[in-house]
Amino acid sequence: MVAEFEPTSNQQSAIESVILFAMNGVIAAVATPLAANGTLNVATFERLVDFLIESGVDGLCLGGATSEYPNVAIAERHVAISAAARRLPLDRALLVAIGAPTFRQVLELGEGARGAGSRAVLLPMPMFFRYDQHDLEAFAIEVSRTLHIPLLLYDLPDFTNALEPVTGIRLLENEEFIVGIKDSSGVVENLACYAQAREGRSWTLLVGNDRLLLDGLKAGWNGTVSGIACFCPSLLLAIHRSFARGDSERAAHLQTLVNDVAQQLDTLPTPWGIRVALEVLGFDMGAFPWPLSPHRRDQVGRFREWLPGWLDRVQASVKG
Q1: E strand or H helix at 225, and its extent?
Q2: Considering its fold, how many domains does the chain have in total?
Q3: Residue 2 falls inside a structural domain
Q4: Among candidates 108, 136, 106, which has minimal Cα distance to 122?
Q5: Quick one: which of 129, 197, 201, 150 has its CA closest to 169?
Q6: Which tens digit of pLDDT belongs to each residue from 195-243?
Q7: β-strand 25-29 against 151-155: which pairing, if any?
Q8: 272, 229, 252, 253: which is closest to 313 by C-alpha?
Q9: pLDDT tens-digit map of 145-191
Q10: Which of 33, 101, 236, 299 could form a disulfide bond with 229, CB atoms 3.0-4.6 angstroms apart?
């Protein structure tokens, strides 16, 4: 077992201030460019981080589904955490997802994130094997009490064990360091469920399904961790800012553009479409993790042809 972290008085003060601070706005989920030997393509990764910072996003999320974390070695994830932390301004949030095949690796990633200055960690539930809700609750409690860092739950039921709202809410209510959730379930009813349970508390509620961003904002959620924001941050920022200033009509129009590209992305394995979009923008993302069938190559080619026209529509709408 990894030894528990005992914060100094200064660290404890910082932790307490972070717990009281809810993350807001658009946090871009960052994809992982890999070299041919499977190591992180640091130059491309740093250029992508700079692109997102310059776009004005409110923060970066590393190590989630968009990063394809099951396909990236733990050592390379530590390299990415350090590289992003060095480049991220103090006024932007660093959120590090710490999902891994083993409990020890989860804790090691959490310690690396804490050491790099991550504002919080994002905890997906265990993957591959099926567990009951009491198992997931015990897992989240042990991670949060061991790491002593603000922790957001990550409900990612397409790829990990689903976290039922009653379990998530109980953890938020009872655990000091569990301070929010990123909900990627796509279940619209969860938006009202968590928002009503919050009752004025400083939980951070982040939408993880891009199609539900506007619905989440209307329900009072803080913002989003968005894969689409990794290649088109201006669109997600425009939705959030339009809604914040009361221009719901413009926000709704912009949301239709998100839905259009989400429909295209859904034709490819998650998150291959995001990788293709970044390549269209000039980022060398490396090879796909698996060989492409002829059918898949055709789909990738069609998406490459479709995307520039969509980007032109976004540019016109965001400027308009």
Answers
A1: strand 223-226
A2: 1
A3: no
A4: 106
A5: 197
A6: 999 998 999 999 999 999 999 999 999 999 999 999 999 999 999 999 9
A7: unpaired
A8: 253
A9: 999 999 999 999 999 999 999 999 999 999 999 999 999 999 999 99
A10: 236
Q: What is the pLDDT of residue 3?
A: 40
DSSP single-letter state for residue 312: H
Length of the chain: 320
Non-local (6+) Cβ contacts of 238 within 8 A are: 250, 254, 317, 318
* SS3 readout for 76-92: HHHHHHHHHHHHCCCCC
- Tell me the C-alpha to C-alpha distance, in Å, between residue 256 and each of 53, 95, 161, 188, 253: 25, 27, 30, 17, 5
Are the beta carbons of 140 and 180 closer than 8 angstroms? Answer: no
Q: Which residues contact 185 (CB under 8 A, 6 or more apart)?
A: 155, 156, 157, 162, 208, 209
Question: Is there a domain that residue 4 lies in?
Answer: no
Question: Taking the complete model, does pTM exceed 0.90, yes or no?
Answer: yes
User: Which CATH number belongs to the domain containing residue 118 in this structure?
Assistant: 3.20.20.70
Instruction: Give me the torsion for CA of 182, 183, 188, 190, rounded to 10°.
Output: -90
Residue 3, in any domain of the structure = no
